[in-house]
Amino acid sequence: MKTVLLIKEIYLEGFRNLGNIIVQRYFKALAWFSFAMYCMVLYAFIFRVYTGFAFD
């Protein structure tokens, strides 16, 4: 739980003093998109490992 709170604090601190609201929203959207793509890559890798894909 402490790790989740630390990640939340880092996320909030990163966007606290950006200034322009458009830039702030753009970077937030980019951060969430990057997180979603990372989760998708992890899912694909775990699926391939689980189904016995040969990494040659």
Task: Report on the architecture of this protein.
This protein has 56 residues and is mainly α. The chain has one domain (2-51). The protein is built from 2 helices and no strands.
Q: How are the SSEs ordered, and which strands pair?
A:
Elements: H1 2-14, H2 21-51
Compact description:
This protein is mainly alpha-helical and 56 residues long.
SSE order in H/E notation?
HH
The percent range for strand residues is under 5%
Name the average pLDDT.
Answer: 87
Helix content: over 70%
**Unreliable residue runs:** none
Tags for this entry?
56 residues; mainly alpha; 2 helices; elongated
